[in-house]
Amino acid sequence: MNLFNIFTEIENIDADAVERINYYSRRQMFRLGAKAAAAAVPATFAAIGSAYGQGAVPTVTEVLNFALTLEYLEAEFYRMGLMAPNLIPAQDRAVFMQISKHEDAHVKLLQVALGAAAVMKPNFKFPGDAFTNYQTFMFLAKALEDTGVRAYKGQAQFLTVNKDVLTVALRIHSVEARHAAEVRRLMGIKEWPSDPNEQPTAVYAGEVNTIHGGVNVAQLVANMMPVERVREAFDEPLTKEAVLAIAGPFIG
């Protein structure tokens, strides 16, 4: 059983998929190496930020634990939302049940991959009306999903030392992007963000950028489309520091 077969199971997830992940051998997962697996790891976002160090290149283990903490947050958010009485309308419930299954699968996979080096699930705190007001729930779901998409993109550069891990991280990233688009569709807004002033603004910082690969795409297609279309054609990464600032307040 190789890594790619394991992830195929997740991509075709059903009610039993998360449980099946528990049966896969840890030794058949990511080859992090004994030194990395034995390394001390942070238990909260703040600790993860400190572990990276000023200007230091994070290890694969640290990046995966950073991702795992984000996945813990999303999985807990949807778990609590689905448990809340009369919160999610019947017509939307199946969507959030499926997203919840995906987040649980991501958590399980990262836990198995990291083994003993996996961070423990922290305690989370959410706004008081997060699970009583559907509009608040949706707003938070949008913010968390869009943050997750950009967070994976920002950390991908540090996974190039392990192509198998990078491949799986990109597979998770694309599913998170689908989550974000679906939540935005349910809210009745564009599936692709392009407005740097969209709320919360920290999640959409950098959306004014139109230069990609050293090419100013806005100038390249100036006679074909407005700059807004150019901005929404490309998604921006978020740095680790930006993600910490956004997600940190949810941990307590």
TrEMBL record:
InterPro entries, A to Z: Ferritin-like_SF (IPR009078)
UniProt superkingdom: Bacteria
Protein name: Ferritin-like domain-containing protein
